[in-house]
Fold:
Amino acid sequence: MSGVGVLGLVTLLDTMVFHTFESRPVLETSHPEARASIIATMTSRIRVGTRDGLWELDGDQVFSVEALTGKSLTSLAVDGARVRALVDGRTVWECADSVWKERAAIEGSAATCLAPTSSGLLIGTEKAHLLRLVGDEITRVEAFEMIDGRDRWYTPWGDPADVRSISAAVDGALHVNVHVGGVARSRDGGRTWMPTIDIESDVHQVLAHPRHPEVVLAAAADGFGVSRDGGDSWRFLTAGMHAHYLRAVAVSDDIALVSASTGPGGRRAALYRASLDGEAAFERCGDGLPSWFGDNVDTGCLAAAGAVVVCGTEDGRVFRSLDGGQRWDVAAKGLPPVTCVTL
Structure:
């Protein structure tokens, strides 16, 4: 990886641009444990997938991952100490102990997204197939091919539907978003599947709450979908937002964040936040963000871990918040178009 060791640093300086920024403090405190927590939060490593390589933001430095230079990143996923990357929709790469290696090749339909689960890495593909990687072997999840209502999945432009996002709940439940096909759920590790939402809601991302398995969220053309019973029933909320077309969703502690715009073209796109405790109206995220984003903040380009939230844009900027989306700063700019982010 670039930026390691003296020779690596010299090479990096020759080829890379470092970005420096100031971080606004989340809060003022003199308590040693609280200050240590703030420092740890501010130094969280952000990984940014782009159409031209993987980039890492560590403190106030931005550097590329040499092994993935020039490659188009489709999706990123963190699994404990390991990080997985979907490259060009055709290969799965894995990082362990700071070393990236190609793990497996995808044959057939191109892959679109991935998610770690207790039974292996799930990989979604075009034409709405679901694969599982265990060890070095990729197998198709055959039960997903026989889910009720599959024959009604579609796209507005006439192509077959794709798997767009996957999320595993802490109780093992699997939630798979098909575009356009709603959200499918399995509670037995993928042996059986059932639909959970009206496919015409046009879901673009599904996300299981990182701590509460009964809470499942969806960013959809119909607004912000929330289920409090593991996907058995859904409500859609739009209060407080200028438009209800949503592409991305993330959870920061118990705050939901979404990207909203007036439609697929990304006109008048913005970020919003709301408490998941009840049904409070969304508030627009403005401090440190542009008045409007030039394009949709897409599925996979909004992520959170604890109080840290990160957002990547089509014009190569990365915005970061240390307080659950209340205040933001520019963590990096001048990158290739961002396709995915993770913490």
Summary: The radius of gyration is 19 Å. The first strand starts at residue 46 and ends at 50. Helices lie at 5-15, 32-42.
